[in-house]
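INFO  loader      accepted 1 record
INFO  loader      residues=356
INFO  predictor   begin
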Amino acid sequence: MRVAWFPQSKYLEGNPYWELLQKNLEKLGIEFDISLSGFYLAKRWLWSHRKRVDVLHFHFIQFQYSGESNRVSFKRMRWFAENLLLARLLGYRIVWTVHDLLPTWEIEPKWGEYLARLIIAHLSHGVIVHCSMARQLVAERFKRRTNVFVIPHPSFIGRYQDYFTREHARKQLGLNEEIVLLFFGGIRPNKGIERLINSFNDFQEDNLVLIIAGRTWPPASYLEEITSLAKQDPRVHLIAENIPDDEVQIYFKAANIVVLPFVNILTSSSVMLAMSFGRPVIAPAIGCLPEIILPDEGILYDPQDPKGLNYALLKVLKGNLEEMGNRAYQRVQLLTWENMAVQTLQVYKNENCDIP
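INFO  predictor   done
INFO  writer      dumping tokens
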């Protein structure tokens, strides 16, 4: 079986999700077609590859229709729908993984983002989601109810070096015996980092430290806001840069707990990464997170409660963080990329998927 991903994995840097899934699918005999340059599906490519590629698997679709103006975006969206229809007529199987209900950066008009997902939801043979809530949301938002397959997000155990002791990691960061809270991931508005800093400032204990580490994303004004807030509290350490793979363990091994106060999220690789290092997580009860973070493995809070994050911080600082982290690690050990690849292959091969 030969599969084409959109976008190709080489364009999806910064998160090993696609690298690990592709590697394990290749172990099962899947071949990946990389003949299409760029991001866009094209009629000429569909025609010339109709006997050489079996499956078109879409991870992110905004590249297919976004343009420099509303008029251009709408035209490309029409082409996208035409191309999906043509692909079906030519015998391709179409699979869509719903990583987010809507993109982090929505283009105008915003109804276009919804329309694009409605189109692919009803022209895909199979839809992959990472939790039952995501399947429910796909049914509610896009009216897709059949052949929606729940494949749990695997852990990242073994992907990163993990041999530092807590003392060694803290020495690398210039820390001592503090209680260390960590935010790790892309620094962008949907992550709620400004709210985390403000909530952290409500706790005046000298033995608390907050580390914010991760790659910066547009808009630049958001980084400026976070930098300004961080400078107001010497206990807040901002490392706004891409963290090399061989340094990832330093931050997680130094931390007592990981805090991810997302504003808008469906599923999260950052949560799985924290649990893969045996760290409990504080996060809002949205999207897939209540199915990922069980009650004895972290703290979920009500995102509608203005003090929800504060209450979660207070509660977790009184809890047994070590025990919670161990439970999280033990459970995510069972979530492997080998299993995900096997289940994904089953979706690729399913010959009884019809348009709902």
